[in-house]
Amino acid sequence: MLKIILIILAILFLLFVIAMLTFASFAMLNKKELKQKEVILTSNKNKKALILYQKSKHKTATEITMALAKELNNNGYTVTINHPSKKLNYNIEDYDILAFGSTVYMGLISEPLMNYMRQISYKNKSVILYLVGMATDVDTERKVLEELVHDAKQVKSIKVKKGEELKIGNFVKDFIKTI
To answer: What angle is formed at CA 48 by the lines to CA 47 and CA 50, rounded to 5 degrees?
Structure first.
């Protein structure tokens, strides 16, 4: 009987260690600065939007970002999409809308994104903040990002999860109406 209990405890301990390593690997995704990978969706109108986002392990953040970008583009914006980096040299003044997105793993937001956001001024800017994570009812991360852009002309934020591309699209439509 004691042997069985020890085996069960060993298995539980092993599962715990595996779970912690898995969570730690996900959390590390939000600390890593990604390579620049600029994508531009062109428009024949004179409006421009910049989207910087930290991608997720399973493409969810990229899918949400592309839905956001397509909605902006459908509304006449030339959209530039990239990952946050110290090497970026965008002139923020050239853009009508700034959008920042991050995955949320264990309550952590992208460090490279927040570092980039701390370096720029938002005066007279319209800003979209979006987070991708499973706990969409938790607002803590949204409030952290909103604090970084407190001097913006307009700020709207949302937290979505996998499969909510339509929700982010409708969010963008409503945002554009208020500009």
So the answer is: 160
